[in-house]
Design goal:
By secondary structure, the protein is α+β, with helices and mostly antiparallel strands. It has three domains: 379 residues, no CATH class; 147 residues, no CATH class; 132 residues, Jelly Rolls, CATH 2.60.120. Helix content is 51%, strand content 16%. The strands form three sheets. It has a five-stranded mixed sheet with strand order 2-1-3-5-4. Helix 21 links the parallel strand 1 and strand 2. Helix 5 crosses helix 6, helix 6 runs antiparallel to helix 8 and helix 16 crosses helix 18.
Amino acid sequence: MLIKRLVSSVKPIDIFLISGLITFSLLLTNFYISHEQYYYYWDYARSFQQLEDLIDSFQKSALEGVGLLIISLFDDYTQLPSIPLLPLHIILGQSRLGFIDSLVLAYAIPFSLIMGLMLSKIILANPRIVFWSTSFLSLLVPSVWIPIFRGFPDIGGSTLVSLAILTYWQDSNLKVKDRRTLIAFLLGVSVLFRRHFIYSVRALVITIIIYKLLEFFPCYTRKLNSFLKYLKIFSLRIIHILLLFGAFSFIVIIKALFINYRALYASYEASAFSNAIFYIQAFGLILCIFSFLGFLGAYKSKLIDRKKSNFLFLFGLISIIQWFFFAKQINIQYVTHFLIFIIPGNYLLIYVVYSKINQYIKKSFLAFILLFYSLNLFYTISPNAKFIHPFSLLFSKKESPLFREDYESVASLVKYLRANSQSSQKIYVVASSYTLNYSVFTVAEQQLFGKSILSISRNSNIDSRDFYPLNGLLQAHYVVVALPYQYHVDPKEQTVVKVVVDAFKENWAIAQDFIPLPQTFALKHGVTVRIYKRIRPTSFATILETLGKMRSQVSRIPGQEPFWLDLKSEQPSAIIQDPLLRMVQVLRLQINNQIPASLLYYGQIPAHSKVSGLYSISKCPNTTEPIALKLSTLDKNGTILLQTIKSYPTSQLASFELKISGQNAAFMRLDLMLEANSKTFVSCRAELNLLKVSSQ
């Protein structure tokens, strides 16, 4: 019935206008992307790579694709944004242009239409004109486009929050259970869509509570019992929404309760002043002032639903306060939090002024408005347009198509590594800036060759979030070092990068296990890149020496440091600390009956220590021999103090527990070896889960 009513309300002009909206959007996108020459990296490439992975999974089997979707719900970056993009990306082509066009059709167009719908509910006249003019105005605001052009789908989260607001406006007293459920669902999906929308959810709930108190308190000042009764009923309805929201987004809620994201991402935090400057620059001072004046004018206008406009203004104010003083994060995708009230505020100002000016200058006023917003958009995204610096703060921040002058130099660097390394040989990149980082190599290789063969390690970038870089260095066959030291936040927050640069500049013992290759590469900003090739495994004495230097020079214990080290150099294992369970997982650990796999523990050692966890043995050539686990305590020089050993059956999944005295110990060493009596070489793969050191 609802669909039939919607279809019957569509007129030929609506079809024409939506076609124009889509055509304008795709032409603008193609213009922008055609002027790019860049290697997108880190989060800028994540959504594109996730979509490619999902397409590959579905091409193998529907079951594998659905499995990837479900598993991703437990990750910080879920596959939910990829779902609407799947058919579009396949139709439009699996290129970057096809990906951005898919983002535009799946997220930018719906967002603009939702903005139009929102304003048609606020302004009490000409709903069709308000709807379409707001939709087009939304697409003239540069901050709608820049996150999408950079590869972020986050505006989809803003669309969900906006739909939740519209649903709330239909039943502001929250009487209808189905609407409460829909609000909770929309907010829950927005948080699963992108975790940082938890701030918008909190802002919306606070806004609803404060606004209702302000709205109803004067009516009940003389009837306290009535006020308390209403407050109780409304509180129960809010609690109902929160409980449903928790059910829809329970994965994110659980992780938020047990993982200190503030600590992990503390290196990225910026002051309230820096946040204010960044986001004012992103929108431009004029658009920010217009938004404030629009809500101020709406408060005094009889042509506007002041309850809804005041609600939106309060929501915007709370959003700003909590983002600047609590979230404290700066990046282009976060502007999507502010679009929900910046765009309505601008349109309200235009409408209020238009309704009050003389009839003879209305057309001139509209022409001026169209010209201003168009020029502001053109200035922001144009490859060449420049503006006089003193006035640049007034307009949206210049975000030209990204263009690397050293594009070919990076290509030459990637080609050199492909020619000189093998796919099994790990490459560790000692750089973490917008000029060079490990992700640039991965993306550049995919763009240049389609198929990746380089094995680029995920290096340690940020002190608050990452780990000591020694594990990566020990497994590296090649180390790529960029000089001067490359960082992208405060260098004091990236000492896990600088310590490796220092190791090669100062020729530490570990650097002497490598030799520099003859060719160097010059990148932009005076960056010189040199490649070092491993010539021998790193000795145990050098490992201890390097670990000591790193622990003394890194400014703090990195946020996800596992405190375990794989001593078998050049082995492609992985050691990960789960941020939720705070326990360690060791993956792809090769063990055999001749040389043990050895792990070094350098965290806090209790006087009476216990090492426990789960082990799994796989990929063995038909052997049933037991596995030996040997635990040793070592002094600061690596000399063995005590040892204990236990035998366990080879198993797909079993628990283990080793106890030892930790007195006077600086380290613990865990050795794993097959007890194969045969003289033939027997090798297996081991996985350790829930690896934990505790008191007996």
